[in-house]
Amino acid sequence: MTDFVMDSCSVNEKGHLTLQGLDTVELAKEYGTPLMLMDENKIRSICRLYKSSMAESFGQDSVPLFASKALSFKGIYRIMAEEGLGCDAVSPGELYTINASGFDMGKVVFHGNNKTDEDIRYALELGVGRFVVDNTEELEAVNRIASELGKRQKVLLRITPGIDPHTHKAVATGRVDSKFGSAIATGMAESITRAALECKGVELTGFHCHIGSQIFEIQPFVDAASIMMEYISDIKSKTGFIASELNLGGGFGVRYVKEHPHFDYAGAIAELACAMKKIAEGHGIPLPAVMMEPGRSIVAAAGLTLYTVGSVKEIPDMKNYVSIDGGMTDNPRYALYQSQYEAVVANRAAEKAEYVCSIAGRCCESGDLIAENIRLRKPVKGDILAVLVTGAYNYSMASNYNRIPRPPIVMIKDGKPYVAVRRESFEDLVRNDM
Ligand SMILES: Cc1ncc(COP(=O)(O)O)c(C=O)c1O
To answer: Is 274 a catalytic residue?
Structure first.
């Protein structure tokens, strides 16, 4: 098998898996395993695709914001700055990391359904560009603290459009029954909008919605954008307020396995723009400046994780377990969502994959699996296993469970590797212990 779900992967003359032409087995030797490898050129090319597609469809005022939750470390923000993207953050820790990278905080949008007063003050002091205000308690706090600091903070309100896309229920966020935002259907959206318009410490610029993640159909996005445009028109006729900004969130699907479809990002953006322009013309309202918040689609397919195989356990007439030196601590997505992955024995990447097995991590936990019933070339102890498309929501969800240090992130730019995040040490693990 030499056709991989990651298009920057191939096989070299030694039969080894390559990323951007570099031998992954050699990289595993040099940097150790587990190892996260990321293709910086790929990340940059998707950033450019978002930028150009949005500019073409929505105009030059539109901006993609990288969703930090997908992957957060200083180097990723330097890439986003160079590519001209903004960023979204959902916690003071993400804000701190963005600021520490030297990123322009005016291009940051601050999310979260339960920001504390300390979070709000911190973000205001950092000069965050916009808050996405989730609820009335937060609106009151932003208004109060901004007024205390002598500021008038730009704010979008998070609105729940009432869309139920086909995705895992843990990553669906646009239904009326959601912990996020104010629903149009319940009247809460209108009442928080009216309240925001009365606030002296707040400048309402528009609205935000996000219907979920890993969604492959375009229609739910078009429906959500259309509902938001109708809402903007309705609010204009009721209050006179004309939203100048609309943030459509993230959520475009990523191909993790060959059974997943290819998602046409540029095509989806064009369809969204077409639907929104029709509504804007029909209601006589201007098209607001559009923001989007892609996370997964920018970094997922740029990353793979390398592990060393330990044991191969065969339970007759039942199951084969291939144990690796990482697991749910660097990739909890199978344990959380039963996410599918493609895996390859990197040192025998050209051989036929006929051995059906489950990939087990090293944690003291039966649920510590990366994949079940996957096909590999039969591995043996010492082989290097590559799990593909691990660039999003892996490192950012990684933990130190069982006191396992997090792996490093090695970026590859123009065929040259460099350490972007170093491997955690045992000293790192006890740093806060008294
Ligand atoms: C508010 C918000 N914006 C953006 C994203 C990024 O979504 P994705 O990584 O699917 O593009 C998320 C993720 O769920 C989110 O909650």
So the answer is: no
